[in-house]
Amino acid sequence: MKHPLLTSVIVFGFGGSPALAQPDLSNASLEQLMNVTVTSVNKKEQKLARTAAAVFVISQEDIRRSGATNIPDLLRMVPGVQVSRIDANAWAISIRGFNTRYSNKVLVLIDGRSVYSSSFSGVFWDQQGVPLEDIERIEVIRGPGATVWGANAVNGIINIITKPAKATQGGLLAAGTGNEDNAQGLLRYGGPAGKDGAYRVFSSYSRISNSALPDGTDAADGWRRIQGGGRADWNLASTDSVTVEGSVYSNSEGQTRWPGFTNLLPLGDPFAEAITARGGDLLGRWDHIFQGGSDASLQVYLDTYRRIDLGAVETHKTLDFDFQDHLSLGRNDIV
Prior knowledge:
Number of domains: 1
Number of helices: 4
CATH topology: Ferric Hydroxamate Uptake Protein, Chain A, domain 1
Helix content: under 10%
Radius of gyration: 21 Å
Oligomer: single chain
Largest sheet: 10 strands, antiparallel
Strand content: over 45%
């Protein structure tokens, strides 16, 4: 595979108020690092030091310093997570156990929305295009969490949490190019939405070149992606908040296939095959805080895509309702 050398990156900010400064964790003490707040372990906010699980948090500062251009490359920095790149548009990611392209024992969430395909419980990582600049943190739990999160959370959980809209006010223009990542571009703008709200909208584009086959020739696995979306948050009162977010995308990809199950047998010459994927999602969440510290949340999301791969057409539509009630009873919590 070609060496992913990044040759140029340009970032501009314009208009509105500046984005909120990210904490520099490189100079933080051990006590400060252990006080990082996480929410994925018990579905409630708690300090990292008080979690009864093996948790690793990738902060926005880590993302900015990593130089990564996609989510799979970010996960390479997490201990215990195996990330294998199959070709230019496919990855195999797993926690513990065997790793395959469609590992079905790790739950992957984006702002509480499961991104698994229910047809085989795997993740199409090429369809998960959250702008890295909009990610607040990524919480990775190594170990079983099925008792809290349900299906697929057997070996671990990857929870991608994006920034609230009020943290991305003003404009942002980012662009990059390289010998493998031919083009990377993001245009984002955020502003106030009424008296007690904020919004952001974005549009992104990426073009990845073909990787190389063992004989040095180009594989037909280059791809293009265009995506647009946004998020809005409102504080209706001191005890109520509402979030609405969504996105749409279109992928045009390729892949190199062999007539048989392996390329080690003389079964014929490889051939190129196209992949197309188009879809979108829409999520709404209401959070309420009761007197005494208890809280409840109601989340509804719609996720749909249409993918043509290996000559088969897959149409996927998910409508999900999730209600959670968190009660504080002295030293005890009930979720």
